[in-house]
Amino acid sequence: MKMLPPIRIIKHSKSKLILLRGFFIAYGIFILCVNFSQTCNFFIPRVHQKTPQEPGIEFADLKPILKGVAKVGYLTDKDMSAQKNDGVFLSAQSMLAPTVLDLENAHHRLVLLDCNNLENAMSLMQDHALAFLYVNPYNKILAENKP
Amino acid sequence: MRFLFPFLASFFSGYLLIDLICRKDKKMDFFLHCFLAAGLGLGFSGIIIFLLFFFTGKADARAAIYVNLIFLFLLLLFDRKNIGQSVNSLTERTAGWPQPEIWFLSIILLMWGVYKMALWQKPYGGWDGWALYNMKARFLFWGGPAWKNIFQLHWHTQPDYPLLLSLINTWGWIGEGTDAFHVPAFTAAFFMVICCGLLFSGIKRYFNTGLAVFSALLLLTVPSYLIHGASQYADIVLAYYLLASLITLVITVREERKDFALLSGLFMGFMTFTKNEGILMLLLLVFLTTGYLFRKVEMKEEPHTLGRGAPFLKKEEMPKTRSKIILFLFCGTSLGLLSTGILKLLLAPPHHGAFGITLEMLSGFLNFNKLETILKSFISGFRHGGHIWVFILALLIAGYREIFHKETKILTIFLGLYFLSIVAVYLTTANYDLQWRLAQSINRILFYLLPSALFLAFYVYGKEEERLKKDE
């Protein structure tokens, strides 16, 4: 069989097909190996990690108290911007759903306070004339708006 | 494990629906049928539940079960003549498959493995998973008459976001009887696996099984696919419905199929009810498909004609088949659009940040620095995805002659226009810090585009191989 010069080998469709297939099979296998090793590197160190806590667990004990309550106020001294909030408000909303948490609104019968410390929480309660009802081990306070 | 019953019921609904719609196609590949049915059924169940809650005014789990069962029963009734033929033709439809029962078992085991991985890695999902989608599902599951309070939540919870994922999770919780955290994890795993399966089936319809298996394996082993998929975001649902829309669209245009046009429309409609981006995707796809069908070219396979510069058809010149295809496509989109329309126009508040853009601000949006930041973020995002995007690019370069050839041009132009639209959205960011927004969203955008990009890349490569074989 006559040997074709290299440039004509590449132009020949069958050779092109073989080259193409060969290249992509080799590259694909390489990627599969890389993916597999990256996946192992990601997951293996995490094998013994603790199961994360359910978001909003700090408010879990309030769930039975707020059962059937449509809306409660939610006061906080924390940064509530989209970029800098710590997610506690959203986790509270997730845990206490279907009760609606009305942020920065104390004009509900019940109001939830989530502050950096108890002093700030007490200060907020005084400002809004709220009566203390309950505090849980995570310092989340449930207060009442007296008529 | 009672949550599996709603998923099974939805699967059978989807299977019968496709059987009914595509009853003339006795030889549809069984796995394509199943992977399309899995998502179609869940989409229908979600929308049925939403419409039920909306029209009755309360979230009633029992009514949701009854309506879904009635829907399944009606499908059984209408499809009773086809079911026998469909079952009898299973042998024919799995012809060429070495021991299809092993494939089926492998898929089940795979789904179980991915589910366990998702549960172990992120049992409660990522931020948006627990804070948005699963939280809203709780309103739907427990809310009763007050389920509409979803739309009165603080804007941090994005009350304008579509609800399909939350409704699917609610459907799973209805079967389980409680808002168990493992149900959304299963939903995420389910969509991850059927997305891979759909990619496989879509490639296999036109090319060899080896290429199809390779494409699905590649997708399933991408670390960012596993990590983002397990986050329980709506992104994996959108990824599936986008891929389903594109695959059914390719079949529609390539084979001149009205039935697949209807299916494609249905999947496009579901996209709009999954994420806000789905609305843009539907508009682009419908516009491009209609434009393509209006051009004066033959849709049947021709030897390597590019069809460039073809004039547009006038209405009276339009072949009946193409008119019907467009009509069926529009009809298919109506279900999803109806639900999205009800949500956006009657229930949800406007998107926070969508308005408040003034003419004065517009001039500030179009600056080179912002564009540079956005493009750099995209490049960083591609790098984060690893070699997969380089591989996709390599496949597209190898098949460069096919990128704009016939039906492939719809997919290529769609992805290009979508990318430009996303850049435009970022350029007009008004109420958020751009860097923060990019950091939160780039990887997710690339994640839900990945299966479709892989489909395009392998489709182009497959066509190039066929072209080379014909040239021999």
Report on this model:
The complex is a heterodimer of chains A (147) and B (472). With 147 residues, chain A is α/β, with parallel strands linked by helices. Chain A contains four helices and five strands. Chain A has helices spanning 6-11, 13-43, 88-96, 118-127, and strands at residues 71-76, 100-103, 110-114, 130-135, 141-145. Chain A has a five-stranded mixed β-sheet, with helices on both faces. The longest helix of chain A has 31 residues, at 13-43. Chain A starts with 5 loop residues before the first helix and ends with a strand. The mean pLDDT of chain A is 86. Chain B has 472 residues and is mostly helical. Helix content of chain B is 73%, strand content 0%. Chain B has 20 helices and no strands. The N and C termini of chain B lie far apart (55 Å). Mean pLDDT of chain B is 87; it is low at 301-309. Chains A and B meet through helix 2, helix 3 and strand 2 of A and helix 7, helix 10, helix 11, helix 18 and helix 20 of B.
Write the layout of secondary structure elements.
The complex is a heterodimer of chains A (about 150) and B (about 475).
Chain A: H1 6-11, H2 13-43, E1 71-76, H3 88-96, E2 100-103, E3 110-114, H4 118-127, E4 130-135, E5 141-145
Chain B: H1 4-21, H2 30-56, H3 61-78, H4 80-88, H5 90-93, H6 100-121, H7 127-142, H8 164-176, H9 182-206, H10 209-220, H11 223-229, H12 235-255, H13 258-272, H14 277-293, H15 320-347, H16 359-365, H17 368-384, H18 388-398, H19 408-427, H20 434-471
